[in-house]
Design a protein that fits this description.
Helix content is 16%, strand content 26%. With 194 residues, the protein is of the alpha+beta class. It folds into 2 domains: 1-36; 39-190, PEBP-like (Phosphatidylethanolamine-binding Protein).
């Protein structure tokens, strides 16, 4: 009796999983076209370094400290502007969960399709990084046995944000609530010279 019940449960689970997969393939489930959960595949790319690759000194704080160029593609319908948060996820500050905020920018016009090297398109705003500076601060991890991971987070927004240039990450995240129609990320690794 117990074996028969266990077999029935396993068969029902397999049938249920098959039904979910078929619904997804027909567009009725997650990720399909039938109204389930689906986000457009927003992409950000750069020629400065490969996604997940080592960040060259040109873009590092100890190097030339130049903000890399990015192109944005597969931009979701309804996108008016973009915001970027750039941070080192391998550091915890002051015993808390916060990491090192290197750069943030918002109101990057969707029509620009990206950002050029070393500057932002007209109308974009740079917020305050961890040093309370309104500028790009490249990777600066010390020499050591491991690389730090630096993430550029890109958000596609349905409107421009009314934030002062003194705003920080918490202000930006709060202002973006309910306006995000796409997100992408690009990762660079860096450690100081041995």
């Amino acid at each position: 009796m117990r074996t028969r019940m266990l077999t029935s449960v396993v068969v029902l689970a397999m049938v249920g999983a098959l039904g979910v997969e078929l619904a997804a393939q027909r567009g009725g489930g997650r990720g399909g076209r039938g109204g389930g959960f689906a986000l457009p595949p927003l992409l950000m790319q750069t020629d400065a370094f490969p996604d997940g690759g080592v960040v060259p000194e040109r873009y590092a704080a100890r190097g030339e400290n130049v903000q890399p160029a990015f192109t944005f593609s597969n931009i979701p319908d309804g996108t008016v502007s973009f915001a970027i948060i750039f941070h080192d996820i391998d550091v915890a500050i002051g015993g808390q969960t916060g990491d090192v905020l290197h750069w943030l920018a918002w109101n990057i016009p969707a029509a620009a399709g990206g950002i050029p090297e070393g500057k932002l398109p007209e109308g974009a705003v740079q917020g305050a990084n961890i040093r309370n500076q309104n500028s790009y601060m490249g990777p600066g991890a010390p020499a050591g046995p491991r690389y730090h991971h630096y993430v550029f987070e890109l958000y596609a927004l349905t409107e421009n944000l009314n934030l002062p240039a003194t705003a920080g990450r918490d202000d930006l995240v709060a202002a973006m609530a309910g306006k995000v129609v796409g997100k992408a990320a690009y990762v660079g690794r860096y450690r100081g010279a041995q």
